[in-house]
Amino acid sequence: MTADPSTDLAPEFFAKMVESVGVGVGIYGQDGRYLYVNRAYADLFGVEPSELVGTPLWELVPEIEADRFDAYWASFADEETRTAETVHTHNNREAPVATVTTQRSIEGTPYHVGTIKDISERKAREREIERQNERLENFASVVSHDLRNPLNVAQGYLDILQEDIDRDELSLVDNALDRMGTLITELLELARSNDEVGEATPVSMTATAESGWRSVDTSEATLDTPESDPQVVADESRLQQLFENLFRNAIEHAGPDVCVTVGTTPEGFYVADNGPGIPSAKRARIFEAGYTTEENGTGFGLSIVQQIATGHNWEVRVTDADDGGARFEIAGVECVQ
Question: Model confidence at 291, in pLDDT bands (50, 70, 90)?
Fold first, then answer.
């Protein structure tokens, strides 16, 4: 490996470099050994900064091999900065870190200066999110198969009984099974809506809304859509799901003969109805999973809307429609035309 020049930089020089930096700092020379580390970096391993001075970089960063250090050093251009996420190890401790490394020449001698930020908490949150997603996937599997299959069997036997027996009680059972089916569908949607939104491409807002309308029981309701054909950048399947849930919400709260309007705004689009609207005092809770003001409501539909919007980096706002009904505005939407 290339020998480090004998340039002797005073400690005051290094201290001045990191005077205003609130994260770990390391400086190493051409031989790959630390010339300086600050207290924040040494604290990651529970040691004094002096213990790390003179230690080769590859002993703390396993990704950098000793016999390949010269090639790593030579790959940097002067003033070039690189970012990375890796793990630094020392004193039997591992520290997940985000690094920003820059090559600087001082009086003709190149040095590498790196800031090292501890990202242990973020990595722990990411692992917890992964575990939660695994649990949600398992839950979705149970909902999709273990619960829906016996429900379908019960519905089948009920259909046979209704052909031979005319009893009001059977209609009550039928209604109860329908409600269970709705709950299962929305629970499944809620679980799966935590997945990342798929590829976003320009899609027809009008066509997607009309497809969603056909998927909902809207026999007595009416839908008004823009005469133009606005294009929005979205995951088409998730966008349709968002429309479906807003349409169901309108029918559930405004009645089967509700008139629903889909239109555009400078920031995106909206879905409004001519129903009784949503009181201001209740608007803060309507997106909570399980919260509902209707006896037959599930409380999951608007929570799914919120999650789909969040997955697109959109914002959902609730306000009053022009005729006093509810109006859901979706903002932050990229429109093509």
Answer: very low
Q: How confident is the model at residue 175 (pLDDT cuts 50, 70, 90)?
A: confident
Contact predicate 119/96, CB 8 Å? yes
CATH number at residue 182: 1.10.287
- Termini Cα distance of the chain: 59
Q: How far apart are CA 258 and CA 250, in angstroms?
A: 7
In the chain, how many domains are there? 3
Return the pLDDT at 130: 80
**Which residues partner with 89 through β-bridges?**
94
Q: What's the one-letter identity of residue 9?
A: L
pLDDT of res. 199:
81
Count of all residues that appear for the chain in the document: 337
Q: So what's the pLDDT on residue 157? A: 87
Domain boundary, last residue among 174, 192, 210: 192
User: What are the φ and ψ backbone dihedral angles of 194, each rounded to 5 degrees?
Assistant: -75, -15
Q: Are residues 214 and 139 in the same domain?
A: no
CB 57 within 8 A of CB 35: no
Helix/strand/coil for 4: coil
Q: In this structure, are 24 and 80 located in the same domain? A: yes
Whole-model pTM over 0.85: no
How far apart CA 229 and CA 86 sit, in angstroms, is: 47
> Which structural domain range is residue 40 located in?
11-118
* Residue 56 DSSP class: B
- b/e map 146-162, b = 16+ CB within 10 Å: ebbeeeeeeeeeeeeee
